[in-house]
């Protein structure tokens, strides 16, 4: 059988990694795919970069500075999009689909915002859009959710799905450093971009969580309804207190099935230090999935980097190659569920989310303060799990009061916080971090 022809758009870290993995492991890939997978053309948006890459790979593979030329090439069967961002990636992917080509992409932002449009266009043309590399790099979490757990009713997913933020939080905890200091170190080491906003503000994690949620629960991709908080305002003080209470703070993406809808949220979260996911350190990723038949499963590995991400891209290429001649109606659906089974289950607003809380209050060191605060919590039907009060040094007139609550509705906590903040004995803005037991 003739080799399948691939066009590769994007010559950055992942694009170069994909090229080299395909070339290096050609024999094994052919044995698994049943036919060869050959890169027939490479394209970059920058003609100078295309010229430089041509010098590296020689004359065997043409490198062009116009991705449109690649997408229009009738000899190419699969287009691999690795340029990232929304445009021109969206236009190139839709044009490739219109030309009857399968697509492999690592572009989580594109799919989180325009996945519904792209998957519908692919379904109408009978082609595949594969995106394993879009979530958690080399961890095969998309395949696990879409195929491996297909017999299960998935209850919830919780994931550390951004390596930059996990590295920063690990360093803050391990070395007692503040956020700004660790961010500079992360940038120096190459873990953080010069503009790290998407990572540290939780946007990158929310893109990935949106895709996992759609596959897990059979709903459209709805990034605009996700609640997103980052770690830029997190203080070393709270990481220290969490540790004393037996918890670690991680930036988690959480999506959970509830009777009234689906939770879709990214934010710093206290996790018991005994949980495996709480011990994921450095730039590693991990995803926990709770399902009815299999119970709890954990997926761990590198979430970024040239070859880990290339591993997922090439795995998608093998899958598409195996399915290229299959009846489109008998392929695994893009979002696991058949199109007519996608539901309109609502994404819950944060006021309706159920979770527990860590609260840190800077309060006047005088009698009756704790009593008034616990009364406010009780009035809002919020029960207390633990209290930690720092001993005041001699001469100090204020102290830190730490409260852990049991699960409650976020809207209730918002009302309680507003009342507590108004007390004259509460001397600074209250720190609120959500807490998940992940039991």
UniProtKB/TrEMBL annotation:
Transmembrane intervals: none
UniProt keyword rRNA-binding present: no
Cited CDD domains: ACT_HSDH-Hom (cd04881)
Entry's EC annotation: 1.1.1.3
Gene3D superfamilies attached to this UniProt entry: 3.30.70.260, Dihydrodipicolinate Reductase, domain 2, NAD(P)-binding Rossmann-like Domain
Coiled-coil intervals: none
Keywords: Amino-acid biosynthesis, Methionine biosynthesis, NADP, Oxidoreductase, Threonine biosynthesis
Ranges where the ACT domain occurs: 358-434
Pathway it works in: Amino-acid biosynthesis; L-methionine biosynthesis via de novo pathway; L-homoserine from L-aspartate: step 3/3; Amino-acid biosynthesis; L-threonine biosynthesis; L-threonine from L-aspartate: step 3/5
Listed InterPro entries: ACT-like_dom_sf (IPR045865), ACT_dom (IPR002912), Asp/hSer_DH_NAD-bd (IPR005106), HDH (IPR016204), HDH_cat (IPR001342), HDH_CS (IPR019811), NAD(P)-bd_dom_sf (IPR036291)
UniProt record similarity statement: Belongs to the homoserine dehydrogenase family.
NCBIfam families xrefs: PRK06349.1
Protein name as it appears in the record: Homoserine dehydrogenase
Organism: Pelomonas caseinilytica
């Amino acid at each position: 059988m003739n080799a399948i022809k691939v066009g590769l758009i994007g010559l950055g870290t992942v694009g170069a990694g994909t090229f080299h993995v395909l070339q290096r492991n050609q024999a094994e890939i052919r044995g698994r795919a049943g036919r060869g997978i050959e890169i027939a053309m490479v394209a970059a948006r920058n003609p100078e970069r295309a010229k430089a890459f041509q010098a590296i790979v020689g004359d065997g593979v043409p490198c062009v500075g116009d991705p449109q030329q690649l997408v229009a090439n009738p000899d190419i069967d699969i287009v691999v999009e690795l340029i990232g961002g929304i445009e021109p990636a969206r236009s190139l992917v839709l044009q490739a689909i219109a030309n009857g080509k399968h697509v492999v992409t690592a572009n989580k932002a594109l799919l989180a915002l325009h996945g519904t449009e792209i998957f519908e266009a692919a379904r109408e043309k009978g082609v595949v859009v594969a995106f394993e590399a879009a979530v958690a790099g080399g961890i095969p979490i998309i395949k696990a959710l879409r195929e491996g757990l297909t017999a299960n009713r998935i209850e919830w997913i919780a994931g550390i799905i951004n390596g930059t933020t996990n590295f920063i939080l690990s360093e803050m905890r391990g070395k007692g450093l503040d956020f700004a200091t660790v961010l500079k170190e992360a940038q120096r080491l190459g873990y953080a971009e010069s503009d790290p906003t998407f990572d540290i503000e939780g946007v990158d994690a929310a893109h990935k969580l949106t895709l996992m949620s759609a596959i897990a629960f059979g709903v459209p991709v709805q990034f605009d309804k996700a609640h997103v908080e980052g770690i830029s305002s997190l203080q070393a003080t709270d990481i220290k207190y969490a540790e004393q209470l037996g918890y670690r703070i991680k930036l988690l993406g959480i999506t959970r099935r509830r009777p009234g809808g689906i939770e879709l949220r990214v934010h710093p979260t206290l996790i018991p230090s005994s949980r495996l996911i709480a011990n994921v350190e450095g730039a590693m990723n991990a995803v926990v999935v709770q399902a009815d038949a299999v119970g709890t499963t954990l997926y761990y590995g590198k979430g970024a980097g040239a070859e880990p991400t290339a591993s997922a891209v090439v795995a998608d290429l093998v899958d598409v190659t195996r399915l290229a001649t299959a009846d489109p109606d008998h392929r695994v659906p893009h979002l696991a569920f058949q199109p007519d089974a996608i539901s309109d289950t609502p994404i819950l607003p944060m006021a309706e989310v159920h979770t527990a809380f860590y609260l840190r209050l800077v309060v006047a060191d005088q009698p009756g303060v704790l009593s008034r605060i616990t009364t406010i919590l009780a009035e809002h039907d919020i029960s207390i799990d633990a209290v930690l009060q720092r001993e005041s040094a001699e001469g100090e007139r204020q102290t830190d009061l730490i409260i852990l609550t049991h699960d409650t509705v976020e809207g209730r906590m918002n009302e309680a916080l507003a009342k507590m903040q108004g007390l004259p004995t509460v001397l600074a803005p209250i720190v609120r971090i959500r807490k998940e037991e992940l039991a």
